[in-house]
Amino acid sequence: MASAAAGALGLLWGWLWSERFWLPQNVSWADLEGPGDGYGYPRARHILSVFPLAAGLFSVRLLFERFIAKPCALHVGIEDSDPHLAQPNAILEKVFISITKYPDEKRLEGLSKQLDCDVRKIQRWFRHRRNQDKPPTLTKFCESMWRFTFYLCVFCYGIRFLWSSPWFWDTRQCWHSYPYQPLTRELYYYYIMELAFYWSLMFSQFIDIKRKDFLIMFVHHLATIGLITFSYINNMVRVGTLVLCLHDASDFLLEAAKLANYAKYQRLCDTLFVIFSAVFMVTRLGIYPFWILNTTLFESWEMIGPYPSWWLFNGLLLILQVLHVIWSYLIARIAFKALIRGKVTCQGRIRPRLCTLHSFLTSFFFSMPGGNWTVSSLACFQR
C-alpha cells in the first residue's frame, strides 16, 4: 500500500513539474540548475523565502499603522472613536442576520406591532446595527496609508530598477536567450517583495475587520499570487516586472485619493482621483495591450515559439485585459450616472459640477470597505 501511494505521488509530482509543460522544446530543468550570474536561474524553491518575508511585512504593517499611520490620522482630524452600538434585541437581531438589513415599510410596521415600539426607533436600531459592522474611518485610513506607502515605495524601486534594464526600452530583450536568463539581485528582490506583499494581504484578511467582500478579495489575492508565482517558475520574470510596475503606477494614486477622502480634503481628493483615472486608462487600456501583450503574444512567438505554459501565461494576461476593460467601463458608467443625478440634486447651486464630482467620489470611496476598488465599484453601481 505504501509503495503504491509513493508511486502515485511520484506520478503526480512528475506531471506537476512536467518539462513539456513548463519549458520550451529541448530545455530541461537540469539545464537551469547551473549557477548563471547573480542569483542563478529562478527556481520553485525560491518561493519558500516569501513566507517569512510576508510575516515580516505583516509585522512591519502593524507597527506602521500604530506608530505612523494612526498619529497621522489623528493629526488630520480623524477621530479615534468606536461606532455607536445598537441595543441588544434578539428579535431585531434575528431579522437583521437572517432576513434583511434594510427592512421595508411593511416589515417595519410588523416589527413595530410585535415589539410595541415606534417605527422610527426600529429604523434607528437598524441604522446603528449596520454602522456597527462598518470599520471605523480611522481603521480604513491606517490600512490605506500602509498600502499607499508600500505601493509608492515599490513603484519607485521598480522604475529605478527598470530604467537601467534593457527590456524596459526594448521588449524583445524579454525573450532574448530565453529561458537562460539569470536573475540579478535587484530583479530577485523586486519580484519576491511583490509576492510577499500579496501573501501578507492574504494573511491579514483573517484577522482584520471582517468585510463584506472577504471572499472576492480572497480570490483576487489568490489569483495575483498564482500569476506572479507562475511567471517566476517558468522564468518570465522580465516581462513580469513590466506588468507589476505598470499596475503599481495607478494603485498608489488610488490609495492617496482615499486618504484625502477620509481626511475630508475634498479638493485634493478630486484632483488625485482625476489623476488616478487618467493614469489608469493610459496604463491599463493603452500601454498594457500595445506594449505588454504585444511582446508576450507576438514578439515571444517570433523569438521562442509557443509551448503549453506560454499559452496559459498569455491566457491569464488576456483575462487580465478583459478585467481592465470591465473596470474602466464600470468607472465611466458610475461617473456618468453620478453626473446625471448631480444635475437634479445640485440644482440652484453655484458650482454643480463640483457638487456632482464630490457626491460621486464620496459614494465611490465609501463603497470600498475591503480596499479593492474594482470589486467595490461594482457593488456601488449595483446599489
TrEMBL record:
Report the residue ranges that make up the TLC domain in this protein: 139-340
Q: MF terms per GO, please? A: DNA binding; sphingosine N-acyltransferase activity
Ranges for domain Homeobox: 92-136
Per the record, the coiled-coil ranges are none
Which pathway does the record list? Answer: Sphingolipid metabolism; Lipid metabolism; sphingolipid metabolism
Write out the transmembrane intervals: 148-168, 188-207, 214-233, 272-291, 311-332
Asked if the Swiss-Prot or TrEMBL record annotates the protein with the keyword Kinase, the reply is no
Native organism is Urocitellus parryii
Q: Please give the name of this protein.
A: Ceramide synthase 5
Catalytically driven reaction(s):
sphinganine + octadecanoyl-CoA = N-(octadecanoyl)-sphinganine + CoA + H(+)
